[in-house]
Give the backbone structure.
Amino acid sequence: MQDIAERTGLSTSTVSRALNDSYGVSPRTIDMAKQAAAELGYVPNTGAKQLVTRKSNLIGVFMPEFEFESPQLMVRESVTRVIHNYKSINNLRDRGWRLCLRS
């Protein structure tokens, strides 16, 4: 983020707010910060963001394993419906969410 700030002449905190679409940052500043971020190949640190916001944006789905196949199929069908209701995994990703499926 420091590199983006130096390239744009903005403060690090302004760059942070611009990249996170925070309130109070002009559209011109947001565009400038995002363009510099793209040019520099900036990738946000997910772990750092989770610490600051106290949110993981992770949807975890744990499917139990049953001795018989019938209940397990019902659980898998239910999970499949949930995923299709979100239209696609990419839609979740576009909204900043990650999906974790485990059995």
